[in-house]
Amino acid sequence: xxxIDLDKYLFLPAGxxxxxxxxxxxxxKKLHRSRWILAAIVALDLVFVARLPWSFQHTSNFGWDFxxxxxxxxxxxxxxxxxxxxxxxxxxxxIRSILYPPTVLPLFAIFALAPRxxxxxxxxxxxxxxxLCIGVMGRRALIAQDPEPHTMIDAPAAALLxxxxxxxxxxxxxxxGGVLSILATMSVLVALTxxxxxxxRRVCAAGLAVATIxxxxxxxxxxxxxxxxxxxxxxxxxxxxTALTFSTGNPANLPTRLSTLSAAIRVSREPGRVNDYSPLxxxxxxxxxxxxxxxxxxxxxxxxxxxxxxITLLAIGLSIAYAxxxxxxxxxxxxxxxxxxxxxxxxxxxxHELTILILPLLYCASRFVAITxxxxxxxxxxxxxxxxxxxxxxxxxxITGLSPSWILLKRLDAVFSVHFILSALVALAFAAIWESRxxxxxxxxxxxxxx
Length: 451
Fold this sequence. Notes:
Layout: H1 6-27, H2 35-58, H3 66-77, H4 105-111, H5 116-145, H6 155-166, H7 169-177, H8 181-194, H9 201-211, H10 215-221, H11 231-246, H12 254-268, E1 287-288, H13 290-296, H14 302-326, H15 332-343, E2 349-350, H16 358-370, H17 374-390, H18 397-400, H19 407-414, H20 416-438
Antiparallel strand pairs: 1-2
Helix pairs in contact: 1-2, 1-6, 2-5, 2-6, 3-4, 5-6, 5-8, 5-16, 6-16, 8-9, 9-11, 10-15, 13-14, 13-19, 14-15, 15-16, 15-20, 16-17, 17-20
């Protein structure tokens, strides 16, 4: 049989095809339910599903992240400290590799109930199903949050717009590794969908609790839970978090676990280690963050990088919080999209952890179709930027053919995803303010008021 890299010749080109189809549909404003949209969804989703058996057979280290989760699960069943697992590859082989909060440990225990390879395959199938549903779930979350649901595209169009996201390099890396970020994304979407339904308060709280497995993604979204009526939800969330934390061992062992986790996080951020943002870490090319961009653009003073990163993130966070609290005329859909973009820069993420960008992708496509004027093209740029960010090449010279020693190329590679995410933040904020001042929104967003 021929050894062909189908990622290069089939699956990633399918993602480009999906992007071109979506852009054509958006520009022509033909995002209503039709036979050609349904046919495109079926064809592209079949390509996406077909990648799983190929990857399972041809990826030598399939489930490279999952093996840490599975081993931690075996430690739990054996009564050992799961945070003592150290299965990273050189030069990080002595670093403890479980860098997630205790709320994820029950999931690891479930993983260990089956042999590792089969458990990894089952988890990959679960993630695959989540990816297939992410467009529809993102649409439901935006409709639940936004006061103008009639302007939102319908479900088939949302499923079509999700295909460039799931047929992307970042998503493929995440699926092959068996990451947890897709589950975290779905948990956030569930929480946003059920936030305003009093009968589903427990579901919302459970979604928030599960999303703590990727707390760097969740924390910015808590800006949406500042109403008085959200306090009960947050209290329930705290109860669920407590239950998850103490469900996998003796509560007396929690201080030891947290101490081990804290030490492992500190070590992993040291120069050259697995979570180091500088070029000394050969895998930092897959990381997305302000600090990553600064370091790879030439800054070497780590203290200056850390302070600049904190100041930038604080300024963006305070601006979004001000919009939430003081500008109820800006729809929650726009705020959700801004927070989604912001969350990908909060601390650091990798390109396979950007599936939460489904929110600005759907919202901005919907607004592009619904309005005219200057803001419309800002929304178009956000759609382009989101797709570009999640398809960041690990080395930009691989798609340009230029020498990696070219200094400008190195600078472009350093800020590739960060540039698109920051520019999308600015464009979306400008469009939302422009629309609010122009009075194109139907009515103030009552969901931001205290209840």
